[in-house]
Amino acid sequence: MAVPTIDSVAPTQGPSSGGDLVRVVGTHFAPRVLVSFGGLPGAVTAVREEAGQSIVDVRSPQHEAGTVDVAVQNIDSTGATIAGERAVLAGAYRYVRPRLAQESDLTRLVRQLLRELKRQVLANVSATVSVDYDDTPDDGVIAMASLPSVVLSGPGMRQDRFFSSNEAPEEVVLGSAGPELARRRPAYTVDLVFTITVASARTAELLNLMAAVATFLNRNRWVELDRNPVEPGLGRVRWEMDADGELRTQLGGKDDVRAFTWGFVVRGFDVDEGQLLDRGRAVTEPRIESTALPEQVP
Questions:
Q1: Domain membership of residue 78 as a residue range
Q2: Which of 147, 166, 167, 297 is the most buried (most CB within 10 A)?
Q3: Count of other CB atoms within 10 angstroms of residue 213
């Protein structure tokens, strides 16, 4: 068999955690091949010949961030490598650290909530984050720098099956031999659960803040952000927001501090866009209309 060659690798970069579906296009691939990234073997999912080209789909292995060579080694029916039948494309694939896009969206969402609380309720607003940790003291008292004060706690996360998608989303992408269908895993959708804690030294002031928070929750039924802050042309996305649970008051707190808490939820937040499952040729054959005459019924 002729010596294999590699013409292209797509995509040309992926996460250092591996698992990216990569298509390697070249010539003279054997029915069985070994594909390696920086010397580490990937998981080959399909090998085929199409339009005079050899195509192999492979899942990338885990690797440290950086640029690596991609190699295709032909192997025989027994699984042994065939001497002299190996192709290498230098620097063809770049491993990058996973971009925490959804956490970035979460950060932007929390920042928007803090901005609106400062604008609509009280300028003295702080946040305590409990996504990865919760440093609230055992007695449940949150330190306040000054009174009156508003603290936004959370978010907690609970799965949302109402807004989640159960079908793998599909999109048409341009492949090496024409349009192809790319399918992704359904995103994991959650509700983000927050708590607003408000404290004051005066009862009348606390009652006014209750009204302000109630107005905030009733007026703001959506949280809206740019879909991508770098590309405003992609439009905006918004999530439904609603009060969660009942208002709870504490009028006899320590050091004559009065407080109340009120929860709210932001619904349908995707924490995982969904990894690429597979790619395949799209069906683009024209529809053939029948010209036969209808049967004559005697």
A1: 5-98
A2: 147
A3: 23
Residue 183 near residue 170, CB atoms below 8 Å? yes
pLDDT at 216: 93
What digits encode the pLDDT tens for the residues 213-268?
Answer: 999 999 999 999 888 776 778 889 899 999 998 899 887 766 678 899 999 999 98
Q: Residue 194 and residue 144: Cα distance in Å, rounded?
A: 18
Residue 60, token pair as written in the block: 């990338």
Residue-wise pLDDT for 205-221, tens only, equals 999 999 999 999 999 99
Amino acid letter, residue 226: D
Q: What is the torsion angle, in degrees rounded to the nearest 10, for the CA atoms of residue 105, residue 107, residue 110 and residue 111?
A: -110
β-sheet bridge partners, residue 120:
none
Helical segments of the chain, H only = 101-120, 203-219
Strands (E), the chain: 5-10, 13-15, 21-27, 32-37, 40-41, 43-50, 53-59, 66-75, 81-96, 125-129, 149-159, 170-175, 178-184, 188-200, 222-226, 236-250, 258-272, 276-281
Same domain? 115 vs 215: yes
pTM to 2 decimal places: 0.53
Q: Are 241 and 216 in contact (CB under 8 A)?
A: no
Q: Do 193 and 242 belong to one domain?
A: yes
Between helices 101-120 and 203-219, what is the axis angle to 10°?
Answer: 130
- Note whether 25 and 86 are within 8 A (CB): no
Q: Is position 176 within any domain?
A: yes
DSSP 76-98: -TTSPEEEEEEEEEEEEEEEEPP
- Residues paired with residue 182 on neighbouring β-strands, in sequence order: 171, 279
In total, the chain counts a number of residues equal to 298
Give the C-alpha separation, 101 to 228, whole Å.
10
